[in-house]
């Protein structure tokens, strides 16, 4: 602000100087033309009379006649330039203000050179006053700017100190700490809001990691305990019992490996590390294959599995991954719908639905079930990794498809919509 104001004041100062020079030059040029014209039309005596009677308020004129100087000035300085060139020169006058500064030049007439001058010290005084006022205004601006800048910086530093203090608390593990957001809604409040959003996400992710760790420990504790007990009992087994015990231990070990394989596969799909082998796929054909593979499982659970298709739709996708996602959904429906339930596979255009009339899931859990290692069966009665729906969602997102869960009253409707 100080630089801007200083630049503006300097521009005004230069404008005043230029305006003073312009007015002086125009005034002297007009007087030059007037006296040249008089010299052409008047005789020498009349010309001298006009110079004697010239109004000093208009211009100060002096002419050197053959005998004496004629005009308002008592001297004609040496080395005066010829108009339009001008030069300043001082004169002494009576009164309190004895020294005057004049600006003028010579006019060449047929009666000799005539000095025409005008006072410029008054304009110079005005400019001097302007310069003093400008310097005063500039100094006041600097002082005011520094004072306001100090107060403003103190307010900013106060908030930054508060943010630093809260940040140190977050570094120490107090992840529930949030930066304050004021009513001003300025840039700091916008930054604090964004930072608080990051903290919310971080806290949710940490809670998810803690929950996942607990779930992994819970899911792997039982099979690992069985493995330990089985290995300890192997020396006491007979030859006939040894083969059966090894098969049981192998199955327990496979369950543990399946959990880790599913987690690694989910991570590769979510982060785009697994390359999709894209090809045109018919949803109608895929649902038919799905029905043929899952029908035997439904019969084993004394359930009814049906298929309805209409308006075939072709999608570009990875056949193995898409079939795995759809099969996981049908497998979940068969596993959790209960004995004697009805499961439907419905395909209409770009939409596929898996519908059952089992117990369903609570409305508040429709988003939670897609998190890693989340299982709504706290007793772990059914075998599983808790990664099935997470894997399904990751695969469908890679294929630009949307999955939603809704209540079938009773049961669950899973809807997949391809774009």
TrEMBL record:
- Gene3D superfamilies per the UniProt record, alphabetical: 1.10.287.130, 6.10.340.10, Histidine kinase-like ATPase, C-terminal domain
Task: Extract the GO molecular function terms from the UniProt entry.
Answer: kinase activity
Question: What's the protein name?
Answer: histidine kinase
Supply the source organism for this entry. Answer: Shewanella algidipiscicola
Q: If you read the UniProt record, what top EC class would you report for this enzyme, in one word?
A: transferase
HAMP domain segment(s): 154-207
- Give me the reactions it catalyses: ATP + protein L-histidine = ADP + protein N-phospho-L-histidine
What InterPro entries does this protein's entry cite?
Answer: HAMP_dom, HATPase_C_sf, HATPase_dom, His_kinase_dom, HisK_dim/P_dom, HisK_dim/P_sf, Sig_transdc_His_kin-like_C, TCS_sensor_his_kinase
- Is the keyword Phosphoprotein in the record? yes
Pfam families, A to Z:
HAMP, HATPase_c, HisKA
Q: Where is the Histidine kinase domain?
A: 215-419
Is Iron-sulfur a UniProt keyword of this protein?
Answer: no
For this protein, what is the EC number? 2.7.13.3
* Segments traversing the membrane: 130-152
The record's listing under SMART domains reads: HAMP, HATPase_c, HisKA
Localization recorded for this chain is: Membrane
Keywords (A to Z) from UniProt: Kinase, Membrane, Phosphoprotein, Transferase, Transmembrane, Transmembrane helix, Two-component regulatory system
